[in-house]
Amino acid sequence: MKWLIWLLSVIGIELTGIVSSFFAGDIAGMYQELQKPPLSPAGSVFGIMWTILYALIGTALFLLITSKAKGKQTAIVLFFLQQALNFSWSIIFFGGSHYWLASAVIIVLIFLIIICIKVFYRINRFASYLFIPYLLWCLFAGYLCLGIAILN
User: For the chain, how many structural domains are there in total?
Assistant: First the structure.
């Protein structure tokens, strides 16, 4: 039964990325047209990275949901707050071309991810470790977002 909870957690998080990208519009076309800062990866990298990251994020959710630790409700609320910001970012950035607002959102998201890592650590250490690649990627995405805001 636990495998089903894990599968639903991962699929649910992957679906948030799919739905967000649907509302964001032509992400690949828009990314290609933007002036980008140094170290900007090819557009094809993002889909691969987010698929992997969403699987890690979904697995962290599974670990929180199935934990018997005290305080897991707070961790789950924080989880969904960061997920709401994550969901909205591409809609704001690509769908609305609001690069500065998207920069502010990703900065708040980064801080929320750091808080999640700290809170998750008390509930399930592995769940907190699964958020580290997500944090690193969002730090890089924040650099790209701010660079694009400045250049465009």
Answer: 1
pLDDT digits (tens), the chain, 152 positions:
999 999 999 999 999 999 999 999 999 999 999 999 999 999 999 999 999 999 999 999 999 999 999 989 999 999 999 999 999 999 999 999 999 999 999 999 999 999 999 999 999 999 999 999 999 999 999 999 999 999 99
67 Cβ contact list (under 8 Å, min separation 6): 123, 124, 127
**Which residue in the block uniquely carries the two structure tokens 């995405």?**
141
Do 123 and 16 form a contact (C-beta atoms < 8 A)? Answer: no
- Cα separation, 92 vs 72, in Å, equals 30
| SS3 state at 39 | coil
Range of the domain at 140: 2-151
Q: Alpha-carbon distance 94 to 104, whole Å?
A: 15
Q: What is the largest CA-CA distance in the chain?
A: 50
* CA gap 101, 107 in Å, rounded: 10
CATH of the domain at 34: 1.20.1260.100
